[in-house]
Q: What sequence folds into this?
């Protein structure tokens, strides 16, 4: 499946001062690891470490950190879907390992709208041969995607590519859901599912 790394900006991103500091990634990683040793029961510390390891393509390390985070914060759908993604990326043979699917199912049970879990559960349909079902699910996710969300373009590209591979016409449907351009007066919060201003407000 395509577009695995499209959720970097939608993941469980707890603001972490260490991530803001300049310096080599290895230095930042060392600081994040030191923080988890100082605060072993802080889910946010483990989440930041998991995200940093994921960004460095250390998927096994990311999985381990996210597992610690979900153990401390089991009610976070975003954490479960981040764990699922790390498990997918860390799998050499199985494109949808059972452990990853379990994490996505937990994410959806906590939050039926979790975009990353919805994306990967559609990937599972595609892998299983239900290409039209996967595309329908991706279109449903696209319809729920907030204005200017960082993954919108990648999601469209995934739909186009899977449609092309399996000769499913998606052009008309995609044309009916044109990207909504961000305007200067739309708050950055739009990407966090806060509705943008109405047309009346935009003048």
A:
């Amino acid at each position: 499946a395509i577009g695995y790394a499209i959720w970097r900006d939608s993941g469980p991103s707890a603001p972490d001062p260490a991530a803001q500091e300049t310096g080599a990634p290895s230095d930042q990683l060392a600081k994040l690891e030191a923080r988890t040793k100082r605060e072993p029961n802080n889910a946010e510390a483990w989440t930041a470490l998991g995200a940093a390891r994921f960004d460095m393509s250390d998927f096994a390390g990311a999985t381990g950190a996210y597992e610690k985070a979900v153990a401390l914060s089991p009610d976070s759908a975003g954490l479960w879907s981040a764990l699922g993604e790390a498990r997918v990326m860390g799998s050499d043979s199985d494109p949808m390992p059972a452990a990853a699917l379990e994490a996505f199912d937990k994410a959806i049970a906590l939050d039926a709208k979790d975009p990353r879990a919805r994306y990967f559960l559609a990937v599972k349909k595609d892998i299983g041969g239900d290409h039209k079902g996967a595309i329908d699910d991706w279109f449903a996710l696209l319809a729920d995607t907030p204005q200017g969300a960082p993954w919108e373009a990648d999601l469209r590209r995934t739909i186009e590519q899977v449609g092309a591979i399996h000769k499913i016409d998606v052009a008309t449907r995609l044309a009916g859901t044109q990207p909504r351009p961000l305007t200067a007066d739309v708050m950055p919060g739009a990407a966090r599912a806060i509705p943008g201003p109405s047309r009346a407000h935009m003048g």
In short: The chain is about 60% helix and 0% strand.
